Amino acid sequence: MWERALLPFLGLFFWGRIVSGFDEYEVVFPQLVGSRERRHLHQHYEEQWNDNLLYSVQTLKHKLLLKLQRNRGLVSPGFERFTYSKEAGFQVFNRTQLSHHCYYHGEVEGMNGTVLAFSTCDGLRGVMYMAEVHYGIEPVENATNGEHRLFQIPEPSSPSICGVGDLHTDGSNPPLPVHFRLQRTKRAVLTTTSYVELGVVVDNLRYQADKSNATAVEEETIRLINIVDSMFRYLNIRIVLTSLTIFDQSNPFDVQSGTAGDVLGRFSYWKDINKGLKRSDISHLLIGRGTYNGVIGMAFVGTVCSPSIGASISTFSVGKSLLAHAPVVAHELGHNLGMSHDDSTCPGAYIMHSTDIGAQSFSSCSANDFESLILRGGGTCLKNFPDPNQVLSIPTCGNNIVEAGEECDCGSPQECQNPCCNAATCRLTSGSQCAQGLCCESCKFKVAGTPCRTVADTCDLPEYCNGSHALCPADFYIMNGFPCNSSRNYCYSGVCQNYDAQCRDLFGKDTRKAVDQCFQQANLKGDKFGNCGINGDNYKKCSIADSLCGKLQCTGNPKPILNANVQSFYVNQSQNFLCVTAEFDLGTDVPDPGLVHQGTSCGDGMACANYSCVSATKMGYNCDVKAKCNDRGVCNNNGNCHCNDGWAPPYCDRSGYGGSIDSGPAHIDTSLRDGLLIFFLLVLPILIVIVVAYIKRDELQRRFCKRRNRQRRENERRREQQQQSNNTNRNVPPSTASNKPVTVLSDVFNISHNLPQRQPMPNMGSVPPAWPNPPPLRPPPPRPPPIQNPDA
Hints:
- Residues 709-740, 753-792 are annotated as: Disordered.
- One of its GO terms (molecular function) is metal ion binding.
- It holds the Pfam family Disintegrin.
- The chain crosses the membrane at residues 675-695.
- By secondary structure, this protein is α+β, with helices and mostly antiparallel strands.
- Among the domains are: 2-74 and 96-152, no CATH class; 161-383, Collagenase (Catalytic Domain), CATH 3.40.390.10; 394-436, no CATH class; 483-619, no CATH class.
- It is built from 13 helices and 40 strands.
- Strands 1-12-11-10-9-8-5-4-2-3 form a 10-stranded antiparallel beta sheet, covered by helices on one side. An 8-stranded mixed beta sheet has the order 7-6-15-14-16-18-17-13, with helices on both faces.
- The chain is extended.
């Protein structure tokens, strides 16, 4: 294949600085292929920033066609450049858009599996990944005819090693366990695009290496992240640059002394206490110096989305090229995303190898590690897609990035599986309010107050949907240093830190903290089983006062741990207290997970910080809950009140449903629903009846009058019948009537009674005289004529 055919004429090239020249390279003249003609690069700089470009590169043996597409998702959600100094703090370099977006990804036409990452800002500059061999291309300095160097990127002559970060995480992102790896499930985690919002911090040494030119630092950083982003494409992960912070005066913390782990800890502490730093999923520090005793970078493992320890560092020394440093940054970001070293599990030249071998691709083991992180509930922030209103590029429908003017973007019509999004127009389908997000369900916004991120620890705080946005608010937790567990421990990074929980995480549920004598006996030695960190190549001995903040010592029934050497010993011969600790073989770029966590209580009013037992006040807790929150809530890591149920933010001084101004409404508001139910079930029917009655008022009046007349005639008929009955009874003689049945007339029935003749009583006298003849009856008055009904 062509990949193999390219090796003979590039196989002897040596590595050199990308801007300084090489011992061996080939001069080429990249040409932009247009519809009618081909032009050299120096002839068309003003026309080279289209969405799709095609370059022709003629080498000694082959012609390469480079198909490039603008990397739309590289610099997006509200990208801002800051400068920082202790005196002035954060200063924002405002802009509404990039001066030019000239960063591309692509492939070599006719060569499957190739990956290109280029910038065309000042000529063609970038990297080509082809099979196991990688090539770079860049303009020749002061060239007048578009000359470029084409060279092979060799492996580093003296590989440096990685020094990854702590395998424990905050409560929002459970760590990958040291002693066990989840089996890969059938869930297609990698089929869903994950977005890593990256904040890059450039130290003052690197700033000076770029001649103290902030614009040059920005362009260099964007080119670097463009290459890194191309490496993560295999895992369907997008690296999106959200902010760039430059230390333009001096470094606010020491980057020269101590180990890489010490510097990583200082950087994490600085970013945690500086609220002006723009929030990101991961923060990465570029340090303009050489390695730390061979350690080129360090990162916390599996801590993406953690506001405090979602961090990594790398040394980017003067003279080192972007192409050589990009794999280092990708390696450390891989650790933040839960990826372990490949050395024993996936041997080969991959990015997650523990040494810097110049690898450009991730292994299947790294894919499994990332899937494990997601399946364990980590990486929740990776589901958030960039804010489309702040994308700094021309939108391209179908690239899986929601950009300005787009309501959604689910890829091409062939690959889109989202019923809420029209892939052809990148608009929401009819009736849809949203297409994706933790607060989007069945194409509708979830009701305000719906929990979207549950509490992971007693020091964590919940977040709720606001009813008008598809994204869940950022993750918030109780301010560091707040007492927890009945005031026996302290909150730190959203976790109530205590020894027992750390022992269970490392050695299993049947373990707990050992007696203090175990800590003293082990940590005062200063070896791999007991220490207070590393100083250069040597372990640091703990003092008695700091012994509880060094290596964790547990007791109980520990489980076996992979990649660890477990040691057990006893103290106090009279009682034989068991002590268990472990040495972890995870690489020098991984801080020891067996060290006591920051913020762990080591005494009354004391807590661990940087392997020392110090006053808990140094953890940064500065909130007076009684004064600020009326003693009806706690302060979150933004310093705002998170109110108890029954009280409303921001100061918990009035009735409400709890929560904070950061977390979203903590109550599902049903007032609108209840109002609509009352309206439709009660008010609306009454209104309908009134309207119908008004419209048919004439007909209703006629019917009412007709009924009234009918009732009146019926009453008159009854009166006449009653009067006739009365007249008939009056005309009947009493003697005759006494021997005849009495008839009672009724409208319903007639009742006849045969009345027996009464017998005279024995004591009664003679028969009374007969009734005299009645007076003649007066004839009834004449009957009036019947009333004529006009409606009859």
